[in-house]
Design a protein that fits this description.
Blueprint: H1 2-28, H2 48-53, E1 61-66, H3 75-92, E2 105-108, H4 111-120, H5 132-146, E3 156-157, H6 163-170, E4 181-188, E5 193-198, H7 199-204, H8 212-219, E6 224-229, E7 236-240, H9 242-246, H10 250-258, E8 273-278, H11 294-318, H12 322-325, E9 326-329, H13 343-355, E10 357-361, E11 367-373, H14 374-391, E12 401-405, E13 419-423
Parallel strand pairs: 1-2, 1-8, 2-4, 3-6, 8-9
Antiparallel strand pairs: 4-5, 4-7, 6-7, 10-11, 12-13
Pfam families: Patatin
EC number: 3.1.1.-
Enzyme class: hydrolase
Length: 424
């Protein structure tokens, strides 16, 4: 009995320390006063087991992961985001709601990285600079310029200025101007390893804040190597596309959350996560027998094979809750080729893909069709995102604690600035 009481006291002491650490941060940074969430009355006394699990108090960390270009150059995931944002607006009753309002973390590779930057970078008004519809239009209109790779095999090295495509949209905005936790990978030929552009690293470590226009150019580079530097010139990398390094960044996003107790203090496992993973179709379907395209096909097959394995592993990790807490949107292989440059033709093809039955990976058993369409999945998960959004309005403890630039609005230049903590 004495041992049991000792264990309970230790748990209470640890939990009390965590709670008061968060409350102290909010008090020190001026966010405690006049906040009804922090009026500690009898209604905020919870049993120990509820506090330990965090499910009833801190909720779920919401992750959005967007694959590399695949067969659709990012148009499939872009269109999925348009449908998701529309559902969120309708169900929340807020016509101005944005994707970034309903997620805590975004990870995007290649075309997915560009979409992540478009949707989660804030303008001078502190709101996302693009709606989902505007982001989709940008991808459709510029996909041939952004995702063009060398005609021959191998890599080409040169500095491709992002000014023409990305510079006009992002200007001097950097990773510190993003609204939520952002992870965008590329592959660094200098170190011979994947390199992840991270909002957290930009705030915490010198040499890791990069211009958003450079981040987009790096992750969408394909097999074109780009020399680039951090804002303070302390970090130099030679980047090739994120699709080569990490075509499906879902596992990287989950790992980032589970191992980052500073920003996600109460997230202990997949039971504390809500993940939406968007695919972009599979470019390698039907390449068998096309000997002239084998070098390119092998690269695509390798990337998509790894992407499918990530999907399978994550799905199995969620177990019985994968139908509600892990949602994967991917095109049905039976759709056929993605063709056409006319915007209308492109979007019609994508709409057809989303209306067909969705495809899901099964661990070590390939893939299967499920009864629900991708559109039905998006509508269902939007309801879960709304529930979490509403739950946080009455929460005592913050689910997420992110650093933000002081002054109430994002920076518009790369000048050094202090930061404060805020909870979400």
């Amino acid at each position: 009995m004495a041992v049991s009481m000792l264990d309970t006291n230790c748990e209470l002491d640890k939990l009390t320390s965590e709670i008061f650490s968060i409350l102290e941060n909010k008090f020190l940074f001026g966010e405690f006063d006049h906040d009804p969430q922090f009026s500690l009355t009898k209604q905020h006394v919870f049993p120990l087991e509820q506090l330990k699990s965090g499910k009833h108090i801190t909720g779920k960390v919401r992750i959005l992961s967007i694959d590399g270009g695949g067969a659709t150059d990012g148009v499939l995931s872009g269109k999925s985001l348009v449908h998701l944002e529309s559902n969120l607006q309708q169900k929340s009753g807020d016509p101005n709601a944005r994707i970034a309002n309903f997620f805590d973390v975004v990870a995007g590779s290649g075309a997915g990285g560009v979409l992540a930057a478009l949707l989660f970078t804030a303008g001078k008004d502190g709101r996302p600079i693009f709606t989902a519809k505007e982001a989709l239009d940008f991808i459709v209109e510029n996909r041939r310029k952004i995702f063009k790779s060398p005609a021959a095999g191998g890599f080409r090295r040169f500095f491709r200025s992002p000014e023409n495509v990305f510079g006009k949209k992002f200007g001097e905005l950097t990773l510190k101007d993003t609204m939520k936790a952002v992870l965008i990978p590329c592959y660094d030929l200098t170190s011979g390893a994947p390199f992840v552009f991270s909002r957290a690293d930009a705030f915490e470590t010198d040499g890791y804040d990069f211009m958003i226009k450079d981040v987009c150019a790096a992750t969408s580079a394909g097999r074109v190597a780009i020399d680039m530097k951090s804002v303070d010139k302390k970090t130099k990398i030679m980047a090739i596309g994120g699709e080569i390094a990490m075509n499906n960044p879902t596992s990287a996003a989950i790992t980032h959350v589970l191992n980052n107790k500073q920003e996600f203090p109460f997230c202990n496992g997949v039971e504390d996560l809500l993940v939406v993973s968007l695919g972009n179709g599979e470019a390698c379907s039907g390449v068998a027998g096309k000997l002239s395209s084998l070098p390119t096909a092998f690269v695509k097959i390798a990337g998509e094979g790894v992407s499918d394995m990530v999907d399978q592993a994550v799905s199995m990790a969620f177990g019985e809750s994968r139908s509600s807490d892990y949602v994967r949107i991917q095109a049905n292989n039976g759709v056929g080729s993605f063709r056409g440059d006319e915007k209308k033709n492109v979007l019609e093809s994508i709409d057809q893909m989303l209306r067909q039955k969705s495809v899901e990976s099964v661990l070590f058993k390939g893939k299967k069709l499920v009864d629900r369409t991708s559109l039905e999945k998006l509508e269902s998960v939007s309801g879960e995102l709304i529930k979490e959004h509403e739950r946080r309005k009455t929460s005592i403890l913050p689910t997420v604690v992110l650093k933000h630039v002081s002054g109430g609005s994002p920076r518009t230049s790369s000048a050094t600035s202090s930061s404060t903590l805020s909870s979400n």
